[in-house]
Amino acid sequence: MLTMLLSGMWHGLSWNMLAWGGLHGLYLVVERLFSLRSRKAPDELPKWRQVLSALLVFACVLLAWIPFSMNLDAASQFLGSLSNPANWQLADYKMYIARFLVAHRFTPDQWMPWVFPLLQGTVFLVLALLLDWVQYKDELAFLKWPRWLQASCSPWQGCSSSCYR
Questions:
Q1: For residue 13, what are the contacts with CB-CB under 8 A and spacing of at least 6?
Q2: Is 20 exposed, middle or buried (0-12, 13-18, 19+ CB in 10 A)?
Q3: Buried residues in 120-151 as b, exposed as e (16+ CB within 10 A)
């Protein structure tokens, strides 16, 4: 808890950063308390519990980022509106996009500069997830690749596989 509070203070000496660090610290304390009760390692749990746990952690971390991005008054108002089901609604994004394109008379040569970077980002994300999956299946798979491929994928360009041993 102390480490996460200090991490919040490192990001800025304000109450919202302290709340951000405190929420992350609280999550870690709760996780440790639950892990003390369980005799199983997380990867020994049923798949549905692993997925549910991952979704819960993701939701909690997203909620903790709210005070990171705004002051505490705005964050409390935002969280209050999230907790009221009357404020929940699904947006019809296709309708908004279509209205925007029609209203601004966009032609393909005008919207392609937006779509192309999005496609590039999607390709990069898919490749990154593929590499992550390969590493998940075999942690040393990367070291079995040819040196030129290791060097092209490594954060230190030109580093041979001896850097990883």
A1: none
A2: buried
A3: eeeeeeeeeeeeeeeeeeeeeebeeeeeeebb
Do residues 17 and 8 make contact, with C-beta atoms less than 8 angstroms apart?
yes
Q: 50-91, pLDDT tens digit by residue?
A: 889 889 989 998 888 888 888 888 888 888 888 888 877 766
Are the C-beta atoms of 8 and 21 separated by less than 8 Å? Answer: yes
Give dist(CA 110, CA 76) in Å, integer: 40
Encode burial over 66-85: b for 16+ CB neighbours within 10 A, e otherwise.
bbbeeeeeebeeeeeeeeee
Q: Which of 61, 58, 80 is CA-nearest to residue 69?
A: 61
Q: Cβ(5)–Cβ(21) under 8 Å?
A: yes
Q: What is the pTM of this model?
A: 0.51
